[in-house]
Predict the structure.
Amino acid sequence: DKNKFSPKYTILKNSIKKDLNLAANYWANNLKSMYSISKMQKINYFAFLQPTFGLDLSPYQLEKIVEIHNNENLNETHLVLKGNKPISNEYLLSINYLYSLLREKCKELSFCFDLSLDPNHNNNEKLYSDFRHHNQAGNKIISDNIFSTIKNILKN
């Protein structure tokens, strides 16, 4: 489907893919270690994969984000993420590729909950202070989701 991100068709250098695979493996191993330590201490451990801007968009949509964000002549006030730092298509492709790996690893872990699957959260620029960091409204949604998830688990 050309309207959705597909990691197998990602045009990234093999060295970048290799680094991202290594990062995903480190992430999963760290989660497993923290889970094991918590379990030994009889502490419940939960991990949450948080949303990030630009996930699950088509290559065309990603290019449009880059074009709009980096266009110095554009003066559109609704573009909350418009700023001084240029954004690259490679960054957006890389974050999508990394998240495709992290999501697979999270699925394999009973204590990992993927909050990055909500397209409304991943692509609503009003929830971000920049391309990586949520603002107060974004953090509120994430914390509500975390609270709700833990509450439901502990209730059962």
